[in-house]
Amino acid sequence: MSDLTTHDGKTAEEYLNEARTCYVDQKDYKRAAELADIALKLDPTILEGVIIGGRACMNLKKFEESYNFYKIGLKIDPNQPTIVKDLKELQRLILEDYEKLGGEELEKGYSALQLCGQDVYPGDDELLRNEYEIIEKKYKIEKPADTGRSLEIDETTRQKAAKAAMAAHNYMLMGKYSEAIDQFTKAIEMQPGNNILVRLRAEAYFINGQAVEALKDLWAIPKPQRTVDAWKLGGKILAQIDLPVSAEFWFRKSSKLSRMKDEEAMFWFQKVRVRRLYDPLTIEYGIHVDFTEYGRAVFAKESAKAGDILFLDKPILHTVARNVGVKLGTFIMNGLCPSRSEHTKQLYDIADNLGFVYNENGGRDEIWDGHFSPVILARIWGSIASMAIRLMKESGLDQPTVEHWATAKSPYRKFIAYGNSIASDRMPVMLKLFQDIFSNCGDGVKMEITPAEFNGRFYQATCNLQSFSGPITPYHVFLNNLSNTDPTDTRPFRMMTHLEEAPPTANFCGMFPIHACLNHSCLNNVEVCDGDDNGVPGVSVRAKRDIEAKEELFTTYIDTKMPRKLRRAWLYKSFNFWCHCQRCLFEGDDPDVCTHCKKKSEDGKKFPACGKCHKAWYCSVKCQKKAWSRGHKIICKTEHSKTVD
Ligand SMILES: C[S@@+](CC[C@H](N)C(=O)[O-])C[C@H]1O[C@@H](n2cnc3c(N)ncnc32)[C@H](O)[C@@H]1O
């Protein structure tokens, strides 16, 4: 044991003894955890400190803190039986706690629609002008009027118009759209300027397959008088005639006018946007990306056989995976040299020390709790800043414009960000460090890292990073670059001092635009493997079984060999959702609850388990047969994927 002491002169062993007394005799878990923490800071190899700290926090229901103790233990010995057992218990408690809190109720906080914004993309103004020109020239639709009012009409005409409108409505209900259009036309002729009737006729035209006529009607309604429904219908028509930027514009108007309450308009907006962003990326593959209740999702356009490569994906950004040659890989590839400033050096030190820093007592404090290297965030901001600076220089300016920043950030809009706690509150030191690093991006440019920016990027990385490996390591790239440099330039050779002797293994983690749209299922139909796209290392996504056209492609985010309870707990903890996949529906958690009818056994006895998978329990043969034919058969026969990082 280490003989390091704190300022009060006590050793790690003395703190551990006190922690043990607090835990065992006094049941003072708070104090026990504090003392175990101090002991471990003095000597991070004390296994008993890990266990006392971990268990004390479990008793206090401080699951995150408890996990942090065990993380230290895993570094001492990842197979230590008590730690493995305790971690299982921790998972059980997390799940129990989640269920007590209302389980699936919590999930209602998640809304893919709210997470995916509707901001205007850089360059869209011009695209919109082009599309409006097409509308006016190709479809011969006049520029929209900005004002308008209904004409005064006498009571008899008003009544006749109302009768025609009623007839039109009835025809609509009967599905007789041409007749409905005739009646609406009559009514509009009698009551010109009644924009409700014009909007209803547009709907009839649209359903009747006359999109351009429908658009003409909507165009004629002055902007201030267009309702939520009018804007929404216009969006649908514009999407159908393949004018996506205008369609987004109309759906955005509809959403705003409804104060973001009209979910249909918001949903349609995302569908149009997703097709606009992803169709060009998937054109050469038999897949496409669409928007669903779980946000973006990947679908098969055509059937595929087991083992087929469905698509290849290149990272828009990558770095060497955490704790494998981080120092080497990252500084080569992102231009953020550790020696550039004291702050970047600190960042690399934190990455090298797996998120810990040494405090004045010689102990270690964890200041970064991401499961990925913090350097990844620096890479994201680094790439945004360099793009903004390039655009600034191209425009002959000395500061990037708002438009430049927006363009530079646009590649990252493809990645969802969702987390259920505020990362910047948990990691204030890291926020400050990133602010310091990007207060000078070069060329006198400063990039603002607000807490919202930090949280957004942190959860983008949490939700979307994928590890992969490739034959070409950053080391090779670096050496190759060195051999191509000017022989009189001595800087590359000075950099050699940063290199390790042996080339590190090429384990990367990166953000892949199409791959990041794959949702999870514990009955995944695709598997992610290392891939190579024209010499660029990346991932290939293969069919795990035969896949039919239009099926959604699902990967797995976890080791699907785990029992359902643990799978759900981990998915909830790490990805914020409660899994309802087909497998989760046809497996159970507890042997004393019938997986099919949910009946609880009276005396707590176990019901017989499915003889093949042992992951479902039935109170009767009848229940077993029903479950088998409804879906258990498929999941029971499948060989499930092991861990996929
Ligand atoms: C890598 S992204 C997958 C694509 C995502 N749907 C999007 O719109 O970008 C991971 C996130 O998708 C959502 N997700 C993935 N699989 C899901 C599932 N089976 N049920 C609910 N949400 C899921 C979760 O919010 C998760 O954090």
Automatic annotation (TrEMBL):
The domain of life is Eukaryota
Residues in SET domain copies? 270-558
Query: TPR repeats: which residues?
Result: 161-194
Query: InterPro entries, alphabetically?
Result: SET_dom, SET_dom_sf, TPR-like_helical_dom_sf, TPR_rpt, Znf_MYND
CDD domains found in the cross-reference section = SET_SMYD
Which parts of the sequence belong to the MYND-type domain? 594-636
Pfam families xref list = SET, TPR_8, zf-MYND
Keywords, A to Z? Metal-binding, Methyltransferase, S-adenosyl-L-methionine, TPR repeat, Transferase, Zinc, Zinc-finger
PANTHER family, A to Z: HISTONE-LYSINE N-TRIMETHYLTRANSFERASE SMYD5, SET AND MYND DOMAIN-CONTAINING PROTEIN 5
What is this protein's name? Uncharacterized protein
Organism phylogeny: Eukaryota, Metazoa, Spiralia, Lophotrochozoa, Mollusca
